[in-house]
Amino acid sequence: MIGTKYDLNPFEKDVFFLFCGCRTDRLKGLLWEGTGFLLLYKRLKDGAFSWPRTPEEAAELTRSQYQMLMQGLNPIDPKIKEINPCKVL
């Protein structure tokens, strides 16, 4: 799937591929270590990952963006809710 659908090399060393299926509370990761693949599986206790649905939406993440993702945050399009100012009487 990595090679055919995304036209990428799954055997590239130090490149970590992440996938999310229909149940967006789970991630699967694949990393070639030179002698075999390392498989990662992460499931959020609460919430869901914000995940691209097409090959065109796929993105490359930095280490800090990956850390945000592992916390259940959206590193590509972070949204901060505006807080209404409190009235002081």
Brief characterization of the structure:
By secondary structure, the chain is an alpha+beta fold.
Describe the structure.
The chain is an alpha+beta fold and 89 residues long. It has one domain (2-70). 13% of the residues lie in helices and 20% in strands. The chain has helices at 2-5, 63-70; strands at 16-19, 26-32, 37-43. The chain has a three-stranded antiparallel beta sheet with strand order 1-2-3, with no helix packed on it. The termini are far apart. 1% of the residues are buried. The model has no long low-confidence stretch (mean pLDDT 80).
What are the SSEs and their pairings?
Layout: H1 2-5, E1 16-19, E2 26-32, E3 37-43, H2 63-70
Number of helices, where a helix is a run of at least 4 consecutive DSSP H or I residues? 2
- Beta-strand portion reads 15-25%
Mean pLDDT: 80
Global geometry: globular
Number of domains: 1
**Series of secondary-structure elements, N-terminal to C-terminal:** HEEEH
Helix-and-strand structural type: alpha+beta
**Rg over C-alpha atoms, rounded to the nearest angstrom:** 17 Å
Report, as a whole number of angstroms, the end-to-end distance: 61 Å
Helix content: 10-25%
Strand adjacency order, main sheet: 1-2-3
Low-confidence parts, pLDDT < 50 over ≥5 residues?
none
Q: Would you count the extended β strands for me?
A: 3
The major β-sheet equals: 3 strands, antiparallel
